[in-house]
Amino acid sequence: MTGSTDDRAPVGNPRTTNATNATKGASESRRPLSTVWLTALALFAAAAIAGLVALGNWQVERRAWKLGLIAQVAERVHAPPVAAPARAQWAGLTKANAEYRRVRASGTFLDERQTMVQAVTEQGGGYWVMTPLRLADGSTVLVNRGFVAEPFRARVAPAGSGPSEVVGLLRMSEPGTGLLRHNDATRDQWFSRDVAAIAAHRGLGQVAPYFIDAAAVPPPAGADPKAWPVGGLTVTAFTNNHLGYALTWYGLALMVAAAAAYVGREEYRKRRGASAAARSDPRA
Questions:
Q1: What DSSP assignment string belongs to 214-235?
Q2: Checking DSSP bridges between strand 82-83 and strand 102-109, what pairing results, if any?
Q3: H helices then E strands: how many in the chain?
Q4: Taking Cα atoms as reference points, which of 119, 232, 110, 72 lies closest to residue 167?
Q5: Mean pLDDT across the stretch 28-39?
Q6: Which residues pair with 116 in a beta bridge?
Q7: Other CB atoms closer than 10 Å to residue 148's CB: what's the count?
Q8: What is the C-alpha separation between 29 and 267, in angstroms, rounded?
Q9: Mean pLDDT across the chain, nearest whole number?
Q10: Of 14, 69, 99, 255, which sits 20 to 30 A from 112 (CA to CA)?
């Protein structure tokens, strides 16, 4: 038809538009970061590297401590037994100078005052049988006679009423309890071998600040082997993965350093490119 007018706006070429947008995006990606952003990234990288290196150093220190502990425990558990520390020596006992020493003690077991402490061992779940041993001087030391499974809690074989000798490893008291589990003396529920708390609940008087993990002893004739506490289950082998942890932290620090170096190099190139472009621009 004559006289008609097409008032539609001209449509640009889609390919040309996409190419323009791509060029614009590439140009923006080549634009250097601001000084503020670079400073913030540099500070973050420095803090991250310092923190990761510090964690690696800490694991190296922990490894040295663990190696010393392993060597010390190995020496003590294989040494001949000595007399258990007497009352006059109790105040000077610490984990560092006493724990895991092989000791010997003689006295009379007080089976009627023993305490069952929940435990999980290589034999499964059950209880440590903590029986007081009354010494010749009237003081008492708790003896961990060993482990019994849950079904035998109510019928643990007694240690006997006559004089007895115990050989085992000295262990310091375990005050407090684990996460979400608390000793409850009123209900006679125990989750840690807290010597002072057990002694107070049982009315034992003067008690050594340690207990003895008794060595394995065969059950006497006529005793049910399953109801006889299994001794000698003290854990004396310790894992030592600290070197692997240290290498992990150091590796992460290197990764952060490499990433920071890459960003720094790219920013340097961008700034050189921008400077060259500004010098070659005739409008500048």
A1: EPP-PPPTTS-GGGS-B-----
A2: parallel
A3: 5, 7
A4: 232
A5: 76
A6: 129
A7: 23
A8: 11
A9: 87
A10: 99
Would the pLDDT of 24 be above 90? no
Residue whose entry in the numeric block shows the structure tokens 């004559």: 2
Segment 117-139, tens digit of pLDDT: 999 998 899 999 999 999 999 99
pLDDT digits (tens, 9 = 90+) for 57-95: 999 999 999 999 999 999 999 999 999 999 999 999 999
pLDDT tier, 15 (very low <50, low <70, confident <90, very high otherwise): low
The SS3 call for residue 148 is: strand
pLDDT of residue 223: 82
Q: Which two three-digit tokens encode residue 54?
A: 């510090």
Beta strand 124-135 with 115-121 is: antiparallel
Q: What is the length of the chain?
A: 284
Q: Work out the burial of residue 51: count CB atoms within 10 Å of its CB; fewer than 13 is exposed, 13-18 middle, 19 or more buried.
A: middle
Q: Look-up: residue for tokens 């400073």?
A: 39
**Mean predicted confidence (pLDDT) in 238-265:** 95
Q: Residue holding tokens 């989750």?
A: 191
Enumerate the domain spans of the chain.
35-78+236-272, 101-227
Which residue's structure tokens are 């003895």?
A: 212
d(Cα 178, Cα 191) in Å, to the nearest integer? 7
Is 269 strand, coil or helix?
helix
Whole-angstrom distance, CA of residue 233 vs CA of residue 20: 76
Which burial class, exposed, middle or buried, applies to 66 when counting CB atoms under 10 A from its CB (0-12, 13-18, 19+)?
A: middle
The dihedral built from the CA positions of residue 271, 277, 283 and 284, taken in this order, carries a sign that is positive
What Rg value do the Cα atoms of the chain yield, rounded?
A: 36
